[in-house]
Amino acid sequence: MPLIPPRHSLLRSLLTALALPGIVAVLIGCVIVYSLVKEEYDELLDLSLSNKAQLLLQIRELSGTQANASFEETGLAPEERVRFWFLDADGVVTDRSALAEPLPFPPPICHRNGSPA
């Protein structure tokens, strides 16, 4: 008696043929979405920091005194709080937040017109 190989259904053949490409497509899609979300999140953080810097500058200019971060949440841990420095046109630190340590790099040496010395 000859053995007849079992027949596979068309659905089973399609699923086995498309399983690996489908998994690869899902993984590539996840990598693309992750990189896009990470890039957009970085841009949102940059925008948030520049907006906060503009706000601090306006507070300092309007009050005429040392700018404090009284609008910040005091319940945050020290490493999560904002540190800021105010620099004049020559790059000299004129003011800084309470948690800010001295700048780790020397100020740039520039002429008044902004060109390097």
UniProtKB/TrEMBL annotation:
Keywords: Membrane, Transmembrane, Transmembrane helix. It comes from the Bacteria. The chain crosses the membrane at residues 15-37. This is Uncharacterized protein.
